[in-house]
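Moderator note: this is an archived Q&A kept for reference. The question asked for a predicted structure of one protein chain; the sequence and the answer are reproduced below.
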Amino acid sequence: MRTAWLLCLLMEAACVVRAQSPASFEELAQRAQAAVDSNPAEAVTLFKEGLALRPSWAEGWFYLGGALYHLNRNQEACDALRKVTALVPDKGVAWGLLGLAEYELGDFDQALADLKKGETLQLGGSQEFEIAVRLDAARILIHATAFYEAASTELRPLVVQFQAGSPAVIEALGLCALAMPRLPSEVPALKRAVVNLAGKALWANLSKRPIEAASSYRELLEKFPHEPGVHYANGMYLVDSDPRGALTEFEKELQADPAHWPSLLFSAMLELKKGDPETSIQMAERALKVVPERHRPLCRAELGSALLALGRIEEAIPELEAAAKLDPANSRPHFYLQKAYRLAGRKADADREGAEFLRLKAEEDPLGLPNPSGDFTDAAR
């Protein structure tokens, strides 16, 4: 797939090269562009010759980066593409391609930042290229245990718009459904069957195929009842339609792995939602001991909201304040802080937190981090 979408991207910019090139330069630029398809190694040489004559040739740096990426010369591709982003910082396609090359080099933090910047600036008209960008972004997020973000911001558009049933998308969905923080290359051969079936189940659910989804989740439980993540995946599927059934599935997951933090975290949410804040506190406290650092703000927000539900206001406020400090862009802690401050008689603080909640809520992706109303569960099941 890399060859098809990459050649398409490079062809789209050919007219720009000709329009901006003087006669003495035009022939070299055209030869270089023509060689991208038939002989990318020769194209690299020709682009370098052209760029030696005109270092400010942004399209030449872009073509060179694309040709090098095509040849799996990813470090050189990154060097060329950074020239493009410096010369034309609003070229989303260049940022996206740079992120793909950085992903291949294992520079995941930088890759994710550049992939997301490319998405923000628009990735052009190639669906194949957008799929490649979103898949790599989702893989990085899954590997970093950010299953929520991966499911909601990257994988859902692929299900809705593009190649929803492609093996690569199914694989990413499966890793997300099972809360398995691995890259595709790290999945053992013996685990591929369960990842594939979990991915198909989640794909069917996200794509609004209820009969197929129910059948796939049932098959997942029947074939792999003892595989890690399977009961959690089924629990997430049941969260909205059968919360008690979801809790039962999370309990089964925790029986096999008491440190399975996604099950602890969602159990805490559901226990609070069904009116059992004491059990919610127990689950949130257990989760805090094992959850990855990036999810501690969410755990502390859950703990604070459960304490607040019990009227333990002075204990709730520090937890909610910590959650807001650790994750300042998340509106959830501010919502509960507003309530806590009001109950504590701190009107000015309550007004401030209420205003901050409204500001952040207006900016947030509605498919962002989970909350009791089920924003995440719709995306992650």
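Archived answer notes: Residues 14-23, 365-381 have pLDDT under 50 and may be disordered.
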